[in-house]
Amino acid sequence: MYYSIRHLTKFRYSEHVSESLMEARMQPRSDGPQRCLTFQLMVHPRARVQFYRDYLGNTVHHFDVPGRHKQLSIIADALVDVQPMPALPVSLGQGAWDELDQMIAAGDYNEMLMPSHFGQSSELLERFEKELGVDSRQRARRRDPLHLVLDLNAALYSKIAYVPKSTRVDSPIDDALESRQGVCQDFAHIMIGLARRIGIPCRYVSGYLFHKAGDKTRSAEGATHAWVEALLPGLGWVGLDPTNNVLASERHVRTAVGRDYADVPPTKGIFKGSADSQLLVAVRVAPSDAPPPLESELGAGDDWSSALREESADAELAAQLQQQQQQQQQQ
Protein backbone atom coordinates (compact mmCIF):
# COMPACT_ATOMS: atom_id res chain seq x y z
CA MET A 1 0.00 0.00 0.00
CA TYR A 2 1.31 3.44 -0.94
CA TYR A 3 0.71 6.34 1.45
CA SER A 4 1.25 10.05 1.09
CA ILE A 5 1.97 11.57 4.50
CA ARG A 6 2.09 15.20 5.52
CA HIS A 7 3.12 16.12 9.06
CA LEU A 8 2.87 19.81 9.98
CA THR A 9 4.25 21.27 13.20
CA LYS A 10 4.16 24.88 14.32
CA PHE A 11 5.68 26.45 17.42
CA ARG A 12 4.35 29.91 18.35
CA TYR A 13 6.08 32.09 20.92
CA SER A 14 4.57 34.93 22.95
CA GLU A 15 7.74 36.97 22.43
CA HIS A 16 10.52 36.91 19.88
CA VAL A 17 13.15 34.26 20.53
CA SER A 18 16.69 34.69 19.26
CA GLU A 19 17.57 31.14 18.22
CA SER A 20 16.00 27.68 17.84
CA LEU A 21 17.92 24.41 17.68
CA MET A 22 15.74 21.49 16.60
CA GLU A 23 15.84 17.78 15.82
CA ALA A 24 13.07 16.03 13.88
CA ARG A 25 12.39 12.30 13.64
CA MET A 26 9.75 12.31 10.93
CA GLN A 27 11.27 10.35 8.02
CA PRO A 28 9.70 6.87 7.72
CA ARG A 29 12.13 3.98 8.00
CA SER A 30 13.13 1.75 5.10
CA ASP A 31 13.38 -1.76 6.49
CA GLY A 32 11.35 -4.94 6.59
CA PRO A 33 8.14 -4.61 4.55
CA GLN A 34 8.35 -0.79 4.47
CA ARG A 35 10.14 1.55 2.07
CA CYS A 36 10.29 5.33 2.19
CA LEU A 37 10.29 6.34 -1.48
CA THR A 38 10.53 10.12 -1.12
CA PHE A 39 10.92 12.51 1.79
CA GLN A 40 11.22 16.27 2.12
CA LEU A 41 11.49 18.47 5.23
CA MET A 42 10.69 22.18 4.89
CA VAL A 43 11.34 24.78 7.58
CA HIS A 44 10.20 28.38 8.03
CA PRO A 45 12.07 30.60 8.84
CA ARG A 46 14.39 29.05 6.29
CA ALA A 47 17.28 27.04 7.67
CA ARG A 48 19.87 24.61 6.41
CA VAL A 49 18.60 21.12 7.25
CA GLN A 50 21.08 18.29 7.77
CA PHE A 51 20.59 14.70 8.89
CA TYR A 52 22.30 11.69 10.42
CA ARG A 53 21.40 8.11 11.31
CA ASP A 54 21.34 7.19 14.98
CA TYR A 55 22.56 3.84 16.31
CA LEU A 56 19.10 2.27 15.84
CA GLY A 57 18.88 3.28 12.19
CA ASN A 58 16.48 6.20 12.66
CA THR A 59 16.95 9.21 10.39
CA VAL A 60 17.34 12.39 12.46
CA HIS A 61 17.10 15.78 10.73
CA HIS A 62 18.48 18.81 12.55
CA PHE A 63 18.71 22.53 11.93
CA ASP A 64 19.44 25.88 13.56
CA VAL A 65 17.33 29.03 13.11
CA PRO A 66 19.72 31.75 14.34
CA GLY A 67 17.62 34.88 13.73
CA ARG A 68 14.81 36.41 15.79
CA HIS A 69 11.41 34.81 15.21
CA LYS A 70 8.00 34.42 16.85
CA GLN A 71 7.05 31.15 15.20
CA LEU A 72 8.69 28.09 13.70
CA SER A 73 6.96 25.90 11.11
CA ILE A 74 8.05 22.42 9.98
CA ILE A 75 6.44 20.44 7.16
CA ALA A 76 7.46 16.84 6.48
CA ASP A 77 6.20 15.17 3.28
CA ALA A 78 6.74 11.47 2.59
CA LEU A 79 5.68 8.81 0.11
CA VAL A 80 5.84 5.34 1.65
CA ASP A 81 5.24 1.81 0.41
CA VAL A 82 4.10 -0.61 3.14
CA GLN A 83 3.62 -4.25 2.18
CA PRO A 84 1.36 -6.67 4.12
CA MET A 85 3.01 -8.36 7.08
CA PRO A 86 3.66 -12.12 6.84
CA ALA A 87 1.12 -14.28 8.65
CA LEU A 88 2.11 -15.44 12.12
CA PRO A 89 2.13 -19.13 13.08
CA VAL A 90 -0.52 -20.54 15.40
CA SER A 91 2.17 -21.02 18.07
CA LEU A 92 5.92 -21.13 18.44
CA GLY A 93 6.00 -24.62 19.92
CA GLN A 94 7.92 -26.18 22.75
CA GLY A 95 11.37 -24.84 23.41
CA ALA A 96 10.45 -21.31 22.25
CA TRP A 97 11.54 -19.74 25.53
CA ASP A 98 14.90 -21.49 25.36
CA GLU A 99 15.33 -20.26 21.79
CA LEU A 100 14.51 -16.71 22.89
CA ASP A 101 17.02 -16.86 25.75
CA GLN A 102 19.67 -18.10 23.30
CA MET A 103 18.88 -15.21 20.91
CA ILE A 104 19.28 -12.74 23.75
CA ALA A 105 22.56 -14.29 24.89
CA ALA A 106 23.95 -14.18 21.34
CA GLY A 107 22.65 -10.73 20.41
CA ASP A 108 22.71 -7.13 21.60
CA TYR A 109 19.27 -6.66 23.11
CA ASN A 110 20.12 -5.42 26.61
CA GLU A 111 18.80 -1.92 25.99
CA MET A 112 15.39 -3.34 25.10
CA LEU A 113 15.36 -5.43 28.29
CA MET A 114 16.60 -2.89 30.85
CA PRO A 115 14.41 -0.21 32.48
CA SER A 116 14.32 3.06 30.52
CA HIS A 117 13.08 6.60 31.13
CA PHE A 118 9.38 5.74 30.64
CA GLY A 119 9.79 1.99 31.02
CA GLN A 120 10.42 2.00 34.75
CA SER A 121 9.00 -0.60 37.09
CA SER A 122 6.68 0.58 39.83
CA GLU A 123 4.38 -0.72 42.52
CA LEU A 124 1.36 -0.07 40.30
CA LEU A 125 2.94 -1.98 37.42
CA GLU A 126 3.63 -4.91 39.74
CA ARG A 127 0.00 -4.88 40.86
CA PHE A 128 -1.10 -4.83 37.23
CA GLU A 129 1.18 -7.79 36.50
CA LYS A 130 -0.48 -9.73 39.30
CA GLU A 131 -3.91 -8.84 37.92
CA LEU A 132 -2.88 -10.22 34.52
CA GLY A 133 -1.28 -13.33 35.96
CA VAL A 134 2.25 -12.49 34.82
CA ASP A 135 3.69 -11.43 38.18
CA SER A 136 6.46 -14.03 38.03
CA ARG A 137 8.61 -15.08 35.10
CA GLN A 138 7.94 -18.75 35.78
CA ARG A 139 4.17 -18.19 35.83
CA ALA A 140 4.21 -16.01 32.71
CA ARG A 141 6.37 -18.46 30.76
CA ARG A 142 3.86 -21.25 31.04
CA ARG A 143 2.37 -19.71 27.90
CA ASP A 144 3.90 -19.73 24.44
CA PRO A 145 5.76 -16.37 24.03
CA LEU A 146 3.63 -15.47 20.98
CA HIS A 147 0.42 -16.23 22.86
CA LEU A 148 1.71 -14.27 25.84
CA VAL A 149 2.36 -11.03 23.96
CA LEU A 150 -0.98 -11.35 22.15
CA ASP A 151 -2.70 -11.83 25.53
CA LEU A 152 -0.94 -8.75 26.93
CA ASN A 153 -1.99 -6.78 23.86
CA ALA A 154 -5.63 -7.74 24.42
CA ALA A 155 -5.48 -7.20 28.20
CA LEU A 156 -4.25 -3.62 27.86
CA TYR A 157 -6.98 -2.89 25.33
CA SER A 158 -9.71 -4.22 27.63
CA LYS A 159 -8.48 -2.87 30.97
CA ILE A 160 -7.34 0.64 30.01
CA ALA A 161 -9.60 3.15 28.29
CA TYR A 162 -8.32 5.25 25.44
CA VAL A 163 -8.97 8.90 26.35
CA PRO A 164 -7.25 11.62 24.25
CA LYS A 165 -5.23 14.15 26.27
CA SER A 166 -5.82 12.20 29.50
CA THR A 167 -2.07 12.25 30.17
CA ARG A 168 0.84 14.56 29.35
CA VAL A 169 3.81 13.97 27.12
CA ASP A 170 6.01 13.43 30.18
CA SER A 171 3.53 11.36 32.22
CA PRO A 172 4.89 8.20 33.89
CA ILE A 173 2.99 4.95 33.35
CA ASP A 174 1.60 5.18 36.89
CA ASP A 175 -0.74 7.99 35.76
CA ALA A 176 -2.43 5.71 33.23
CA LEU A 177 -2.36 2.67 35.52
CA GLU A 178 -3.98 4.58 38.37
CA SER A 179 -6.72 6.21 36.29
CA ARG A 180 -7.02 3.24 33.89
CA GLN A 181 -7.02 5.61 30.94
CA GLY A 182 -4.41 7.00 28.60
CA VAL A 183 -3.23 7.59 25.03
CA CYS A 184 -1.24 5.32 22.72
CA GLN A 185 2.02 6.48 24.27
CA ASP A 186 0.87 5.10 27.65
CA PHE A 187 -0.34 1.80 26.17
CA ALA A 188 3.06 1.31 24.53
CA HIS A 189 5.03 2.14 27.68
CA ILE A 190 2.98 -0.21 29.87
CA MET A 191 3.36 -3.02 27.32
CA ILE A 192 7.11 -2.41 27.22
CA GLY A 193 7.36 -2.54 31.01
CA LEU A 194 5.42 -5.81 31.21
CA ALA A 195 7.30 -7.57 28.40
CA ARG A 196 10.75 -6.62 29.64
CA ARG A 197 10.05 -7.87 33.17
CA ILE A 198 9.14 -11.27 31.68
CA GLY A 199 12.38 -11.34 29.69
CA ILE A 200 11.07 -10.40 26.24
CA PRO A 201 13.02 -7.58 24.52
CA CYS A 202 10.50 -4.89 23.62
CA ARG A 203 10.93 -1.54 21.88
CA TYR A 204 8.86 1.57 21.26
CA VAL A 205 7.73 2.44 17.72
CA SER A 206 6.79 5.97 16.69
CA GLY A 207 4.90 6.54 13.47
CA TYR A 208 1.54 7.00 11.78
CA LEU A 209 -1.65 4.99 11.47
CA PHE A 210 -3.89 5.11 8.41
CA HIS A 211 -7.50 5.37 9.60
CA LYS A 212 -9.51 3.33 7.14
CA ALA A 213 -13.19 4.20 6.81
CA GLY A 214 -15.35 1.78 8.78
CA ASP A 215 -12.55 0.49 10.99
CA LYS A 216 -13.06 0.77 14.75
CA THR A 217 -9.83 2.57 15.57
CA ARG A 218 -9.45 4.08 19.03
CA SER A 219 -6.39 6.23 18.35
CA ALA A 220 -6.86 9.81 17.21
CA GLU A 221 -6.84 10.72 13.54
CA GLY A 222 -4.67 13.71 12.69
CA ALA A 223 -1.92 12.81 15.18
CA THR A 224 1.13 10.58 15.35
CA HIS A 225 0.74 7.07 16.73
CA ALA A 226 2.79 4.66 18.86
CA TRP A 227 2.96 0.90 19.31
CA VAL A 228 5.58 -1.71 20.26
CA GLU A 229 7.72 -4.43 18.75
CA ALA A 230 8.54 -7.59 20.72
CA LEU A 231 11.41 -9.91 19.82
CA LEU A 232 10.20 -13.48 19.29
CA PRO A 233 12.17 -16.61 18.26
CA GLY A 234 11.89 -17.45 14.58
CA LEU A 235 9.93 -14.26 13.88
CA GLY A 236 12.21 -11.38 14.84
CA TRP A 237 10.59 -8.10 15.82
CA VAL A 238 6.78 -8.45 15.83
CA GLY A 239 4.66 -5.28 15.94
CA LEU A 240 1.74 -5.06 18.35
CA ASP A 241 -0.67 -2.17 18.82
CA PRO A 242 -2.21 -2.44 22.32
CA THR A 243 -4.22 0.76 21.85
CA ASN A 244 -6.30 -1.04 19.22
CA ASN A 245 -5.60 -4.71 20.11
CA VAL A 246 -4.20 -5.50 16.66
CA LEU A 247 -0.94 -6.61 15.15
CA ALA A 248 0.96 -3.91 13.30
CA SER A 249 -0.14 -4.12 9.67
CA GLU A 250 0.24 -2.31 6.37
CA ARG A 251 -1.75 0.55 7.97
CA HIS A 252 1.11 1.21 10.42
CA VAL A 253 3.91 3.43 9.09
CA ARG A 254 7.09 3.32 11.21
CA THR A 255 9.24 6.44 11.58
CA ALA A 256 11.54 5.55 14.49
CA VAL A 257 12.24 2.89 17.11
CA GLY A 258 13.76 3.31 20.55
CA ARG A 259 13.73 2.23 24.18
CA ASP A 260 10.69 4.45 24.76
CA TYR A 261 9.25 7.80 23.70
CA ALA A 262 12.19 9.73 25.17
CA ASP A 263 14.38 8.33 22.37
CA VAL A 264 12.07 9.17 19.45
CA PRO A 265 9.96 12.34 19.88
CA PRO A 266 8.92 13.74 16.48
CA THR A 267 10.51 17.08 17.44
CA LYS A 268 13.01 17.92 20.15
CA GLY A 269 14.87 21.17 20.71
CA ILE A 270 15.63 24.30 22.65
CA PHE A 271 15.28 28.04 22.07
CA LYS A 272 16.90 31.17 23.47
CA GLY A 273 14.60 33.72 24.99
CA SER A 274 11.91 34.25 27.60
CA ALA A 275 8.55 33.33 26.10
CA ASP A 276 5.51 31.14 26.49
CA SER A 277 5.03 28.65 23.68
CA GLN A 278 2.13 27.05 21.84
CA LEU A 279 2.40 23.86 19.82
CA LEU A 280 0.11 23.04 16.89
CA VAL A 281 0.26 19.71 15.05
CA ALA A 282 -1.55 18.24 12.05
CA VAL A 283 -1.03 14.85 10.41
CA ARG A 284 -2.65 13.59 7.23
CA VAL A 285 -2.17 10.04 5.94
CA ALA A 286 -3.84 9.12 2.64
CA PRO A 287 -3.49 6.53 -0.14
CA SER A 288 -1.00 7.89 -2.67
CA ASP A 289 -3.64 8.10 -5.41
CA ALA A 290 -5.43 10.66 -3.20
CA PRO A 291 -2.62 12.75 -1.67
CA PRO A 292 -3.44 15.32 0.98
CA PRO A 293 -3.94 18.87 -0.33
CA LEU A 294 -0.94 21.17 -0.18
CA GLU A 295 -0.99 24.29 1.98
CA SER A 296 -0.56 27.44 -0.06
CA GLU A 297 2.50 28.38 1.97
CA LEU A 298 4.34 27.42 5.12
CA GLY A 299 2.70 30.19 7.11
CA ALA A 300 -0.82 28.97 6.33
CA GLY A 301 -1.09 26.98 9.54
CA ASP A 302 -4.08 29.02 10.69
CA ASP A 303 -6.17 27.12 8.14
CA TRP A 304 -5.47 23.66 9.54
CA SER A 305 -8.84 23.86 11.36
CA SER A 306 -10.02 20.65 13.04
CA ALA A 307 -6.87 18.75 12.10
CA LEU A 308 -4.94 20.74 14.66
CA ARG A 309 -4.14 19.73 18.19
CA GLU A 310 -3.23 22.72 20.35
CA GLU A 311 -1.16 22.56 23.48
CA SER A 312 -0.74 25.92 25.26
CA ALA A 313 2.27 25.96 27.55
CA ASP A 314 1.97 27.71 30.91
CA ALA A 315 4.96 29.54 32.37
CA GLU A 316 6.32 26.50 34.18
CA LEU A 317 6.11 24.24 31.12
CA ALA A 318 7.54 26.96 28.90
CA ALA A 319 10.56 27.23 31.18
CA GLN A 320 10.99 23.47 31.07
CA LEU A 321 10.77 23.47 27.27
CA GLN A 322 13.27 26.30 27.06
CA GLN A 323 15.80 24.39 29.13
CA GLN A 324 15.15 20.87 27.86
CA GLN A 325 12.96 20.13 24.83
CA GLN A 326 9.89 20.93 22.80
CA GLN A 327 7.99 17.81 21.86
CA GLN A 328 4.55 16.46 21.10
CA GLN A 329 2.61 13.62 22.68
CA GLN A 330 1.67 10.67 20.57
CA GLN A 331 -2.07 10.04 20.64
Describe the structure.
The chain is α+β, with helices and mostly antiparallel strands. The protein folds into two domains: 2-82 and 264-323, Immunoglobulin-like (Sandwich), CATH 2.60.40.2250; 96-263, C8orf32 fold (Roll), CATH 3.10.620.30. It is 21% helix and 34% strand. The protein has seven helices and 16 strands. The strands form four sheets. It has a five-stranded antiparallel beta sheet, with no helix packed on it. A five-stranded antiparallel beta sheet has the order 12-11-10-9-13, with helices on one face. Strands 4-5-2-14 form a four-stranded antiparallel beta sheet. Helix 4 packs antiparallel against helix 6 (184-198). The radius of gyration is 20 Å and the shape is globular.
List keywords for this structure.
331 residues; alpha+beta; Immunoglobulin-like; C8orf32 fold; 5-stranded antiparallel beta sheet; 7 helices; globular
How large a portion of the residues is in β-strands, by DSSP E? 25-35%
User: Within the CATH hierarchy, at the fold level, what is the topology of the largest domain?
Assistant: C8orf32 fold
| Helical stretch tally | 7
Strand arrangement, major sheet: 3-6-1-15-16
**Number of E strands:** 16
- Note the overall shape: globular
**Relative helix content:** 10-25%
Structural class: alpha+beta
Integer-rounded radius of gyration: 20 Å
pLDDT averaged residue by residue? 88
CATH architecture of the largest domain: Roll
Biggest sheet statistics? 5 strands, antiparallel
